[in-house]
Design brief:
Elements (H helix, E strand, L loop, with lengths): L5 H16 L4 E2 L5 E3 H7 L2 H5 L3 E4 L3 E5 L4 H11 L4 E10 L11 E10 L4 H15 L5 E7 H9 L5 H9 L4 H11 L7 H8 L16 H15 L6 H12 L1 E3 H14 L4 H16 L8 E3 L13 E7 L9 E5 L1 H8 L6 E6 L1 H8 L1
Parallel strand pairs: 1-5, 7-9
Antiparallel strand pairs: 2-4, 3-4, 5-6, 6-12, 7-10, 8-9, 10-11, 11-12
Helix pairs in contact: 1-15, 4-14, 5-13, 7-8, 12-13
Length: about 350
């Protein structure tokens, strides 16, 4: 990535912001320093590990904002408004690996809609606005829907405990795969777990007890593992259906057709598939050529954990070294976590103006 000229970056931020405010958004500017406790609980594992944090004697633990969405949700909930549209622009901060060449401080411009009256229309509008801002750039769009995968997990013939574990690790593909293989009988899991479960007395040991957990907590965990091991395996057919969803990569209309077929055997995804169909219709009404739009069943699993429905991203065709030029999605669960009974369904996205400048040069 090349560092953009300061004036050019300011002009690009202004251009993007004008596009968003032209769609009825109110410009907001959340503080750079944010209370850390709530935000660290809400961000995904990746962002949580990359956040800059500090401590203030009066305010407690603080963090430099790693993105805008959570602070904007908090602002919206505090306002008491039922519906709203917001735009924002400014710097976000994330630590990088030793060998990572990407900047730790960079600019974002974003747009959020809080309105549950027509989710499909809101999804389509956010996607279309980002597409318009990026028009003429050599980018491709990718879409998906985390809600399909979450609904598929909830429809499995297994215990609520196992479903909760799988849902919790949807955004950690390796861990999710390991759990699915174990719950489906394809793997025994770690050797240490297998040895523990095969022991005549799992709690038998010699020496001094060490660690932060009490003996009672360890005992409860062992009993939970034993109870889980006694659960019937998830059927091979259901595992295959879940794998079909995860491996699905095609144009959106073909993906929709395949998901309808999968729903015959896994009806728990019907409502989520219907939402995709409504969204594609709303996109078509906005002039989006959905016949050429890519859909991936596992897309969005390595981005923010607060996305729980529609997800999208725009990527540079000829620059695989660059991060996404734009990202976004629906995060209704986040608004419920922060707003409770006053929650408003929401969808939004962000654009990195330094990348749009780099691709347009």
């Amino acid at each position: 990535m090349t560092k953009p000229n300061g004036r050019a970056l300011e002009a690009e931020l202004a251009r993007i912001a004008a596009h968003f405010t032209g769609a009825g958004a109110v410009m907001v500017d959340p503080p750079v320093l944010q209370p850390a406790e709530t935000l660290l609980d809400l961000y995904g594992e990746d962002i949580r590990a990359r956040a800059y944090t500090t401590r203030d004697p009066l305010a407690g633990e603080l963090m430099l904002r790693p993105d805008f969405t959570v602070p904007v949700v908090q602002m919206h909930m505090a306002s008491g408004a039922a519906t709203a549209r917001y735009a924002y622009m400014g710097k976000v901060f994330r630590t990088q690996d030793m060998n990572e060449k990407r900047p730790s401080e960079f600019d974002q411009a974003g747009f959020e809609i809080f309105d549950g009256s027509d989710p499909a229309a809101a999804d389509a509008e956010v996607f279309a606005l980002h597409s318009e801002v990026l028009a003429g750039l050599p980018v491709r769009a990718a879409t998906g829907d985390i809600g399909v995968l979450m609904a598929a997990v909830q429809g499995l013939s297994t215990s609520d405990h196992r479903k909760a574990a799988l849902v919790r690790h949807i955004w950690r593909p390796r861990r999710f795969r390991a759990l699915l293989d174990r719950f489906g009988g394809r793997s025994k899991g770690p050797a240490s777990r297998a040895a523990l479960l095969e022991a005549a007395d799992p709690m038998a040991f010699e020496g001094v007890e060490i660690g932060l957990r009490s003996r009672e907590e360890v005992q409860a965990r062992v009993e939970a593992l034993i109870a889980d091991a006694a659960e019937p395996f998830i059927s091979g057919g259901e595992v295959e259906l879940l794998d079909e969803i995860l491996q699905l990569r095609s144009k959106a209309p073909d993906a929709l057709h395949r998901l309808h077929d999968i729903a015959v055997d896994l009806p728990s995804i019907n409502a989520a598939v219907d939402r995709i169909e409504a969204r594609l219709s709303a996109m078509e009404a906005r002039g989006i050529d959905v016949a050429t739009l890519d859909f991936e069943g596992g897309y969005g699993r390595t981005t923010m954990e607060y996305y729980d429905g529609f997800v999208f991203g725009f990527y540079a065709d000829t620059r695989p070294d660059l991060p996404p030029v734009a990202l976004g999605g629906r995060y209704d669960a986040l608004t419920r976590a922060l707003g409770g009974a006053n929650a408003a369904p929401a969808v939004g996205g962000v654009i990195r103006p330094a990348l749009t400048l780099e691709l347009s040069s």
